[in-house]
Specification:
This protein is an alpha/beta fold and 312 residues long. It has helices at 19-33, 48-58, 74-77, 112-119, 133-136, 138-144, 184-187, 200-211, 215-231, 241-252, 262-272, 283-302, 308-311; strands at 5-6, 38-41, 63-67, 79-91, 99-110, 122-126, 147-150, 157-160, 166-171, 191-194. The protein folds into 3 domains: 5-74 and 111-194, P-loop containing nucleotide triphosphate hydrolases (Rossmann fold, 3-Layer(aba) Sandwich), CATH 3.40.50; 79-109, no CATH class; 200-307. A hairpin with a 6-residue loop joins strand 7 and strand 8. Helix 1 crosses helix 2, helix 9 (215-231) crosses helix 10 and helix 9 packs antiparallel against helix 12. The structure holds adenosine-5'-triphosphate and magnesium ion. Magnesium ion binds at residues 48-49, 126, 170.
Length: 312
């Protein structure tokens, strides 16, 4: 099951913090200090999950990561009755009378969200719109009334949530599969920060930290990647993963980033055209995409673009 992960020590040692990320982190921390849930929204690969972990770790509370999906249900969020426990009582008080009584009871196990609510964890609910909206309804009373509605026994019981309990949501509004439109009642209870405008410095710094390339090389890859993204006519494609992949390969396989290096050109095409994988990709479309990559390499590497900071 992909959705049950309790992690008190998620590794984020290579997390880069720039002014852009500091600004979002500062706002998110402020909203959370005031008791509000934060929602990081943006297309794939813009750093939502990494930032959510970074923000959550700042709180210094135990952390629970829930990955949205079809597998998330009331039992694994709130809890349920799992199995039965058998009790037997033997009564031999009067030696001539032997009485044996057997009791069978269902046992209740708390779900991970309920535990987080009771213990005051920081929860990251990653891609929460991948969970059916009706399952997420339990969050309405958690976020507003600060109560969890628990179906213990026959009548519902309400449990008060711990004052330190906080939740950070992430979502990608542009995904086209497996997404449930989040009800306004839920999004109305959170503060949404859109992550669409990562700046060049942040993208370059992440590429550098992830690959081991130097600042100038990382800058070139960032520019290359941005040039390609700008020509794709696809506003939803803002991912920094292509740049990271290319930088890692250039670094570890010692690929020369030169326009004359055909191997480098081919690697760029393999990476940046991957986003368009589709069975119906026509040869014309593929040539068009290859042309964009060639154009980017010629424009960025032939002109030997260097960052202003580097050239000083
Ligand atoms: N500040 C950062 N420092 C270092 N690496 C980062 C940073 N932000 C993002 N990354 C890296 O960039 C990549 C994409 O980030 P992440 O997975 O957080 O994006 P996402 O928006 O959650 O993507 P998706 O929508 O596909 O889940 C990952 O490899 C991540 O480690
Ligand atoms: Mg993510």
């Amino acid at each position: 099951m992909n959705d049950v992960k309790t992690n008190f020590d998620i590794e984020t040692t290579d997390y880069v913090v720039t002014n852009y990320l500091k600004n979002i982190t500062g706002r998110a921390v402020m909203y959370m200090e005031n008791g509000f849930p934060v929602h990081l929204r943006g297309p794939a690969g813009v750093g939502k999950t990494s930032l959510a972990i970074h923000i959550a770790k700042k709180r210094g509370r135990p952390l629970l990561l829930i990955c949205g999906g079809e597998e998330v249900n009331n039992e694994n969020l709130i809890g349920g009755y799992f199995g039965v426990r058998k009790y037997s009582v033997e009564d031999n008080f009067i030696t001539t009378v032997h009485k044996k009584e057997e009791l069978i009871r269902k046992t209740w196990n708390d779900g991970r969200l309920l535990t987080a609510c009771k213990e005051g964890y920081t929860v990251i609910y990653d891609e929460f719109t991948r969970t059916p909206a009706v399952i997420n309804n339990v969050l309405l009373s958690i976020l507003e009334e600060k109560l969890v509605d628990i179906p213990y026994g026959n009548s519902n019981t309400f449990v008060k949530i711990h004052p330190e309990f906080r939740i950070i949501f992430t979502s990608n509004p542009d995904e086209y599969i497996g997404v449930y439109r989040s009800p306004n009642a839920l999004t109305d209870r959170m503060i949404t920060i859109d992550m669409v405008d990562m700046d060049e410095d942040t993208e370059k710094s992440i590429i550098m930290s992830k690959s081991g390339l130097n600042s100038e090389e990382s800058y070139k890859i960032m520019k290359l990647s941005r040039f390609i993204k700008s020509k794709l006519n696809d506003n939803d494609y803002a991912s920094i993963r292509g740049g990271i992949m290319l930088a890692k390969i250039v670094h570890s396989s010692k690929l020369k980033m030169q326009p004359s290096n055909l191997a480098f050109r081919q690697v760029c095409k393999d990476i940046f055209n991957s986003i368009h994988i589709s069975l119906s990709l026509s040869l014309d479309k593929k040539h068009e995409l290859d042309y964009i990559v060639d154009q980017a390499i010629d424009s960025i590497l032939m002109n030997n673009i260097v960052s202003v900071k580097e050239s000083q």
